[in-house]
Amino acid sequence: PGNTKVAKSTAVPPGPPVYLDLVYIPNHSNSKNVDVEFFKRVRSSYYVVSGNDSAAEEPSRAVLDSLLEGKAQWESNMQVTLIPTYDSEVMKEWYQETHEKQQDLNIMVLASSSTVVMQDESFPACKIEL
Hints:
With 130 residues, the chain is an alpha/beta fold. It contains 4 helices and 6 strands. The protein has helices spanning 26-29, 36-41, 61-71, 89-104, and strands at 18-24, 42-49, 80-84, 107-109, 114-118, 121-125. One of its GO terms (molecular function) is actin binding. This is MAP1B protein. One of its GO terms (biological process) is microtubule cytoskeleton organization.
């Protein structure tokens, strides 16, 4: 009633889970769009975590923690692989500080040890078999 404005949420609304093989975490893993509800609903064997901008909080520690909290609520303990696209300080700290919980939840963080060379450029790469 009146001039009341309702903020539109960009987070995933509650509902039944969706199962996928590979998910790119949206918006460079920024916490404005990804929360615990995202990981409770969007269940994947592989999550790609992008972002290498600490000033913009990308990737966000809150998003990485949301993965742990959301996955803890899954009925099954299926293997989940997290694929970071950058070797960021946030990712390193999160990995070290939560390693035991990652193991308990059957989450593996994939480090890229391969390099692809294409047209005089080289970049890190990961092989994923679905």
